[in-house]
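User: Hello, can you help with two protein structures?

Assistant: Certainly.
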Amino acid sequence: MQSIKKLIILITLSIIILNAQELKKSKYDINKCIKITYTKEDIKKYKKLIEEGEIEGYSCAGIYYARQGNFDEAINYFNKGKEKGSIESYAQLGSLYSSFLHDYKKAVKNYKVAANAGHGKAAHNLGVYYYKNFKYDEAYKWFMKSYETGDLNSLLSIGLMYIDQKKYNEAIETFKKVGELGEPRGYYELGTFYQLNKDMQDKEKGIKYYKKCYEMEYGLCAAAIGEYYEEDKKDYKKAEEWYKKGFALKNEGSINRLGFMYLEDLNNPKKAIYWFKEGYNKINCKSCIEIIAKTYIMNFKDYSNAIKWYKIDYKENKTPEAVYNLGLLYEYSKNKEKAIKWYQEASKYKEIKTLAEKKLKELGVSYE
């Protein structure tokens, strides 16, 4: 009987070892397959990768179909990748089940295979899953596994988790470690902790860490210092100085804060528009565009410039509000033909379809 048990154990171990040996991590960069928009040429390329024996081709094809909303085909390719031993396919299938299908049981199952095979992002995602479900010990285990692959995001997450548990000393030491390892977000989180945490609030200490972070050329920290001078000290000159420093580091938040400071605190909409335009023209601040258009309307009743900037907003951001507002502005400007054109365009967006159709009806356009 004892010998049979030993035999079963040996067989089981052999299967485990075999499965571990079958898992493969390709050198192919999966980020090449992650795009905002895809064409039919992309899927042809991914299928060619498969034909050439590149196992990441299965993950690439799966990502392509997932982004198209064809989840069955995506699962099919990820499963084929798993059959070939692709660690990435396990990780991507976990993401599909988590982000799109909300089947967390299957997500966790696939993530664990990838994470145990050394996939850092899969381990991080497991940490996030357990963190959100308040299973801190389990979250810590997977975040650490991810950190061991070099992912400092996971160490940051551990720090944030410590704050949730009111383990403040552990959080402070963790954030310091992240900063010392060369990641400025460690000092940013430490600065924010001292700025906002009511139990251990020390704003001067917070600014000290923001400055360390800024010295590492992280623009968000300059914006945070500017916000401190603007809101806490009402020192607008000093705030502007720091917002400009953040802007020089191409931080969008800095230029937004500077523009709004002139708009709201200093009541200088002309200067506000100047800075929002600087943001758009120099660092492609897309969130600045709509604010420029609104400021022209609200502060100057300048419909011509508002139309110009809403057109830019529509081109850059494709926001339904931009299209609808263009219809309104042309209507206010007594240009019925162009108002109808933009309301018709607006009616294609489900968020504003009813409003646009109502406007078209008011202008005598039948819209059944």
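That covers the first. Now for the second protein you mentioned:
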Amino acid sequence: MPSSFFALFDDIASLLDDISAMTKVASGKTAGVLGDDLALNAQQVSGIRAERELPVVWAVAKGSLVNKAILVPAALAIAALEAWLTSRGIGVPLILPLLMIGGGYLCFEGVEKLAHKLLHAQEDTQHHVELAHAVSDASVDLLAFEQGKIKGAIRTDFVLSAEIIVISLGTVASQPLLTQLGVLVAIALLMTLGVYGLVGGIVKLDDIGLHLAREGAGRARAALGRAILAFAPRLMKFLSVAGTAAMFLVGGGILVHGLPPLHHAISAWTQGSLAWLWGSLLNGAFGIVAGTLLLGALTLLSRLRGKGLSAH
């Protein structure tokens, strides 16, 4: 009996060691997407009343955990079904089409944001003025605004999380099922804690700056506080731009990888030490084109539908 227990303990320790090693490999491969995830989510939760920032980040983090609780078993089940079909001579890709849909959604959302900023710049300025007054007025109920921010952030998180889970799954595809499950769960938890911990810190930078710069603080602390206050809005503006760019880089990258001839052509064009930069720029350009085509197609369908309803 003791020998059986120690054998089981040794198996568990070996499994955990494999999970740890494979998690480190998978984390390295998903680091770029994690950076995009951070930029997008910091942008999504900006504009919230100061005392509500951390509760909103926490709500998005909980939604992100729900996303991953759905994605991890779904990815394992789809991968198992795809492998089962392949073993019977039915080569039907299942994960790739889902990723392509997610990539197309990110590109569409990015172009829609750019189009809205270009076509409705004056409306946006008025909206920001009204929002600033609303945020400063404690009597205004901003629950609907918060819920919209939370839903948008969770929706975007779902697409990025799906890509990270699939990349991680590809890293451990040859491993036993328990190792795959352990690595995906570890990546999901690390990603959620890391991203939303940083997002929470970013959105509270201005409060930290105010605390350090308050009257009575030492010169060094006050100077640091003023520097943080000057840096925080610039950081949020940068993250807003980076978040939109990330939609094209990630979405375009997904679409390009799902089209082998295009992927091989871009790989052939981008050689040398800056191949990664040119490859990312071409992925982003393709994402803009794809998003523009999707937005145009959906706008046309919407107008045709409107005309059809008005005719009736």
